[in-house]
Amino acid sequence: MIYTVTLNPSIDYIVEVDQVKLGSLNRMKRDLKLPGGKGINVSRVLNQLDVQNKAIGFLGGFTGRYIEDWLHEEGIASDFVSVSDDTRINIKLKAGEETEINGVGPVIRDNEAEALLQKLATLQAGDIVILSGSIPPSLGEDFYNRLIGVCKRHGAEFVIDTTGHALQQALPLGPLLVKPNHHELAELFGVQISSKDDLITYGRKLLELGAKHVLVSMAGEGALFISENSLFRANAPAGKVKNSVGAGDSMIAGFVGTLSLTGDVLQAFRAGVASGSATAFSDDLADRELIEQLKPLIEISQL
Question: Considering 249, 283, 284, 287, which one is annotated as catalytic?
Answer without folding.
Answer: 249
